[in-house]
Design brief:
Elements lengths: L10 H8 L5 E6 L7 E8 L5 E11 L5 H13 L1 H14 L3 H19 E9 L6 H12 L9 E3 L2 E2 L6 E2 L3 E3 L1
Parallel strand pairs: 1-4
Antiparallel strand pairs: 2-3, 5-8, 6-7
Helix pairs in contact: 1-4, 2-3, 2-4, 3-4, 3-5, 4-5
Length: about 170
């Protein structure tokens, strides 16, 4: 039996340095969504009340810059279907913020394929901002035949008896 470990840091670096080939059964990937928002950590007072104190946890804004260009070039240099998919994205999107986001995601998906067992599975949580681009990128990495299903969040639905809208999230299959 192996010890459970929690790694802190950039998942690309962690995957490359510490995770063995075909050693993972299941991946739940919940990356930034390219929502163009900042997300904060909110603190609570001792009594549990919300505190005014907060810090920025991460910025979910992607820009085409030198780092994005370098990530894109590395994906292209690796060749294969992922490079072809990224070239197609470049032809469609140009040097855009979305291409910067995809350039960050592509090598991570490649590394996740490497560490997943042949019987393993990956759940990618994303929103409509980039889901269609990510689906094509996953097809390039994992092969379209390996796609199993899509889980869709329905944020509001009509209650049959009242006609009112329920605001709670629910899964729709």
């Amino acid at each position: 039996m192996t010890d459970n470990r929690l790694y802190y840091g950039d998942n690309l670096d962690i995957l490359r340095r510490y995770i063995a080939d075909e050693s993972v059964d299941l991946v739940y990937l919940d990356p930034p969504f390219k929502s163009n928002q900042d997300y904060n950590v909110l603190f609570a007072e001792v009594n549990g009340a919300r505190s005014a104190a907060q810090i920025r946890a991460f910025e979910d804004t992607w820009r085409w810059d030198q780092a994005a260009a370098q990530a894109f070039d590395e994906v292209l240099a690796s060749g294969g279907r992922v490079a072809q998919a990224m070239e197609a994205n470049w032809k469609l999107l140009g040097h855009s913020d979305m291409l910067a986001y995809l350039s960050m995601m592509a090598p991570r998906l490649v590394e996740l394929k490497r560490v997943l067992k042949s019987t393993g599975g990956l759940y990618l949580h994303c929103d409509p901002t980039a889901s269609h681009y990510l689906k094509l990128l996953q097809d390039a990495v994992f092969g379209a035949k390996n796609f199993r299903n899509e889980v869709v969040w329905d944020y509001s639905f009509r209650l049959k008896d009242t006609g009112k809208t329920q605001e709670n999230e629910r899964l729709q299959f």
